């Protein structure tokens, strides 16, 4: 760090003078350390805008490159849809390609808007419930970005869930999984946001497909109801016969970027899907719960099947339950 040398020939240093010199040396040392830290912080502050600019340029490049294949997939899907008759078994698959391409395009536009958004433009997390009668008159909010308030409206769970099941069944068939659903025809309308619910259910179904091994089962049930002081709720339950979730991970499951034991597995993920799902459900004044092992009350046959197949406690399945307010 440095060396302080002082001396005189006419007489030796006394104790008081030595103590003064030591204080001077310590003061110089502290000043030198603070100056080094100041220089380091100035360097970091100078580099930060440059690094942020580089990251922004990289994101812009990736977004630009993402648009071309997305446009191609959407175009091919539309061409395929025109060539298939409505009765063709592949007609719904082609329609799903176009629908998911539109969804990607919408998310891409939201991501562009997020990059251009200043902190002052971000709305608070609080969400005021709008009456059902006014929902159709309110301007629709297309944003599913965290922290952006959603517009509430009444809509059909079936209209949201059935298109997702078309894609999910195709993926399940490819992965040798059995996917079944029980959706009553007389379901009441729910109060929430259809696009937000689509994002939530898409995440939950995708997780079930990812974590259920070949030969496993996925069961989706809708219709269970319960009353609360705020009103009546209806449930959407998604169960699987996968490995289940360790108890130490359950309490952290909805934290952003938390993956628990799955972080060391080969299954890709960011640990964001469930955190986003929880935030969206809470904005719709609903609830989301997770049970592991899977709950027999939601999917009795699948839970028993999973227990029969399990050689130990590792294959016990998981049930996610989404509760939404019934409109009115």
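^ structure tokens above, recovered residues below v
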């Amino acid at each position: 760090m440095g060396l302080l040398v002082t001396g005189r020939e006419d007489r030796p240093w006394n104790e008081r003078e030595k103590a003064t010199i030591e204080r001077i040396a310590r003061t110089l040392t502290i000043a030198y350390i603070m100056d080094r830290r100041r220089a380091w912080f100035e360097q970091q502050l100078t580099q930060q805008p440059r690094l942020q600019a580089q990251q922004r340029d990289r994101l812009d490049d990736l977004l630009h490159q993402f648009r071309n294949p997305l446009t191609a997939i959407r175009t091919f899907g539309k061409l395929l849809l025109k060539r298939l008759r409505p009765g063709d078994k592949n007609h719904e698959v082609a329609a799903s390609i176009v629908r998911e391409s539109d969804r990607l395009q919408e998310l891409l536009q939201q991501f562009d808007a997020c990059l251009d958004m200043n902190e002052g433009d971000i709305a608070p997390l609080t969400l005021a419930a709008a009456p059902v009668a006014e929902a159709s008159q309110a301007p629709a909010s297309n944003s599913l970005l965290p922290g952006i308030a959603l517009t509430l409206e009444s809509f059909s769970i079936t209209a949201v869930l059935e298109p997702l099941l078309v894609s999910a069944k195709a993926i399940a068939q490819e992965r040798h999984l059995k996917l079944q659903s029980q959706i009553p025809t007389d379901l009441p309308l729910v109060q929430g946001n259809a696009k937000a619910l689509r994002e939530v259910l898409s995440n939950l179904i995708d997780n079930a497909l990812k974590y259920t091994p070949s030969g496993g089962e996925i069961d989706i049930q809708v219709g269970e109801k319960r009353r609360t002081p705020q009103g009546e709720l209806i449930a959407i339950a998604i169960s699987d016969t996968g490995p289940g979730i360790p108890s130490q991970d359950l309490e952290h499951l909805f934290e952003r970027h938390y993956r628990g034991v799955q972080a060391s597995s080969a299954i890709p993920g960011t640990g964001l899907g469930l955190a986003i799902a929880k935030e969206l459900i809470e904005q719709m004044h609903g609830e989301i719960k997770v049970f592991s092992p899977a709950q027999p009350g939601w999917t009795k046959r699948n839970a028993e099947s999973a227990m029969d197949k399990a050689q130990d406690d590792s294959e016990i399945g998981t049930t996610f339950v989404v509760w939404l307010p019934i409109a009115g």
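The CA atoms of residues 26 and 32 lie 10 Å apart.
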